[in-house]
Amino acid sequence: MDGKISMLNVNKIFQTSILKTLYFNIKSFGIIGGVSLPVLVSKNVKLKSIKGKIEISCDKKPGLVSIGYGTSSKKFIWENNGVIIFHGKANIAAGCKISNRGILSFGKNFAMHINSDIVCYESIEFGNNCLVSWECLFMDTDFHKIMKDGKCINGNKCIIVGDNVWFGCKCLILKGTEISNNIVVAAGNTLTKKYLKSHTIISGKGVLKENIDWIY
Predict the structure, then answer these.
(1) Can you tell me the distance from the alpha carbon of 52 to that of 129, in angstroms, rounded to the nearest whole number?
(2) Strands (DSSP E) along 42-174, which ranges?
């Protein structure tokens, strides 16, 4: 196990962009706050915009957050023009896209696998111990307005995810979705509503299995 952990650490060192990491941390936290390098940035990350604000609600330990690590044919895109909050350790893997102009919040021990995207215009909130598999998409906006009688009928709506939620691969989580604690979202599903029964496996249509637990 120690050998595997050491090898993972070595791979992360080789994948890290020193210049991007320094630039990201100093720009986000200032010289004093950024010197501990709480965010590690891989060479495969495109920093499209870092105009927004980054908040870390816990101690700024080195490597607390890592973005863009792993292997993907896609470039990792970081575009923050809003507020992003990290409440603890987070790993957002290679090939992902973070596009934020609202308030995006990650709980403790957040992990998102390769090629998954988050598009936040209003508010997207993840609880603690959330795990997102590959090729998932979270989106709290429709981008384009739909009008009826001169009024917009498809405004942005928040997405709220509780603690201990696992998203199977290729899930689509749309605006207005609310997920309670201790839930597994079955792969390939689209969620658009409130799913408030804990300890369940769910699909877009509702509960598939009850009285379950899963290990992070």
Answers:
(1) 25
(2) 45-49, 53-56, 65-69, 76-80, 83-86, 90-93, 97-100, 103-106, 110-112, 117-120, 123-126, 131-132, 137-139, 147-148, 151-152, 159-161, 165-167, 172-174
Mean local confidence (pLDDT), 184-202: 97
Distance (Å, rounded) from C-alpha 56 to C-alpha 91?
Answer: 14
CB under 8 Å to 68, separation ≥6 — which residues? 15, 41, 42, 43, 44, 45, 76, 78, 92, 93, 94, 96
Structure tokens at 9: 């650490």
Q: 70 forms bridges with which residues in the sheet? A: none
Residue carrying the six token digits 């309670």: 180
Quick: pLDDT tens for 155-164.
Answer: 999 999 999 9
Alpha helices in the chain, H assignment, sequence order: 2-15, 18-34
Residue 137, both tokens: 């998409």
Decide: helix, strand or coil at residue 204: coil
Give the Cβ contact number of residue 116 at 10 Å.
Answer: 23
- One-letter amino acid at 216 equals Y
Q: What is the pTM of this model?
A: 0.93
